[in-house]
Design brief:
Blueprint lengths: L1 H18 L8 E6 L4 E7 L4 E7 L3 H4 L8 H17 L6 E3 L8 H11 L5
Parallel strand pairs: 1-4
Antiparallel strand pairs: 1-2, 2-3
Helix pairs in contact: 3-4
Length: about 120
């Protein structure tokens, strides 16, 4: 049963990736949410290269004494990611939420990144 479920998720993600591509001008902002942490990466799909990443595992965010599975932690990840993007002169991205709905922690990360200068 679990194998079938995992294959369906992989197939849905494959279908999404057919439509969403990141390039040098507009890299892809991919968000992965686990039960305990949230990870965000800026990816250039032309080179298959991760340009910037941020997550709740980083020391900057762990030192805030937040529970890593909350919306506040996701907002902080979005803010840190947007600041890193400003340093590398990246302002426009393509948002990729994977197979997860745009709700909760993913929405909090996206809105925080928008408020801090990313355009998508």
């Amino acid at each position: 049963m679990k194998i079938l479920h995992k294959n369906k998720i992989q197939q849905r993600h494959k279908n999404i990736r057919k439509k969403i591509k990141g390039n040098f001008d507009r890299p892809r902002l991919y968000v992965f949410r686990s039960n305990q942490h949230i990870y965000a990466q800026i990816i250039n799909d032309e080179n298959n290269h991760v340009m910037i990443s941020s997550s709740t595992v980083e020391e900057i965010i762990k030192n805030q004494n937040l529970n890593c599975s909350t919306c506040k932690a996701a907002q902080l990840v979005g803010k840190v990611l947007a600041e890193k993007c400003k340093k590398k002169n990246i302002s426009k991205v393509v948002f990729d939420r994977g197979v997860r709905p745009y709700h909760g922690r993913i929405k909090a990360l996206a809105e925080s990144a928008r408020e801090n200068g990313l355009i998508f």
